[in-house]
# Entry
Amino acid sequence: MLAGWFGIGRESVVAGIRKKFGKKGATVVEGNVRAFQAGLEFAELHPVKEERKMKAPQPGQKMKLLTDGNDMCAAAALFAGCTFFGGYPITPSTEIMQFLDREIWKYGGTVLQAEDEIAGVGAAVGASFAGKKAMTATSGPGMSLKTEMLGLASIAELPLVCINVQRGGPSTGMPTKAEQADLFQAAFSAHGDCLRPVLAPTSVADTFGITVEAFNLAEYYQTPVIVLSDQDIAQRKETIDPIDTAKCQLVERRRPTETELANFARFKLSESGISPISHPGMAGGNYLASGIEHNELGRPTASGEMHAQMNEKRFRKFNSLKNRRDLFVVEGDPNAPIGLVSWGSVAGAALEALRLAQAEGLHAKLLVPKLLYPVAEQVYQDFFASVRRGLFIEQSFQGQLYRLVRMYVDLPPQVKAFAKSGSNPIQPAEVLERLRELAVALQNHANSHQREAVAD
# Structure
């Protein structure tokens, strides 16, 4: 019906049907082709009130990609050098594993579809210990199961990328609906003092760059990195420009020098907190990578003093990450008195609302963090320096980023959460209406001060 109403290329659709269902046999293929033809006939008999035919592509136009966030994530992993994926099927992340299962072998890699979520991430941790770039992917319920293994990777300081394609929760929740309610889980689901970077893409195209960045951070800081995608980004089809991979840089883990291997201290208390990492078979590079606390050589210890030093090391190494302003996007006038903060898939609605507000003459700006944790205090302090009223726009009941940032940053008192859970997406019109209300409140406040000044 859509092809009939909007003039979508019929031959291309039929070709896609034959490709999609080809393995299921001629009966299935022809049945779907007949269903498509029936839709065309219905559209012809029931035309839309206003004709809206899509224009045919013009000769010489640039090539576009029709893809989704899960495919972009998997393709980015291959580009970043991932050679091992361990996971278990779960909606809405399964397509990442399916893509890699199809393609990773061409690059000398391996996919392990494990018996459960714990085994999948455990295998990925083992692959990282063996010197490979490794990844796992899941959704909220799977993240709950992976938590213990992520703790092992944290204390053993092993690089690992973990993709969480968020869905409505808790428990089974709504597997086919998007939500942004796993941020607390990503930041805090660990016993003991533990810090793991958390990133979030804002679109299908952005998923490629964020996934590459996740591998770079994992390798550089020797840590698990969690990427919070969501069902909306992961499974929606989008037409995007081809990715310019020449703009992407790749980072490798810090290997020990010959001098360092002479008396190898895997967990050396370095100034940066980052120490050299070996792999099995490297001469002189043997060490114990376990979940028990250790000294610089990796030997188990029950020393409270050494435990405190290692905790400080594992946190200190992330100090430079909080200065990565390139992981934040600011739109609008830097001195605007109204500020919006939004992340993930909802950032698109916030950006559209900002542009509509600017067209009405409203003075506002928008901050889109792609690094959610650790909280970059200075970035938020600088953004809110001019803000007198504002909103954190999130698809969750609690407004988790709002609450997380408040733990570290003294926000202006009139900055509130605009949080909404459920499967219905936040619309730009809703945000625009709230912006109008903030602008009126600002004006009323200014008028009140003027009246008080006149009375004095």
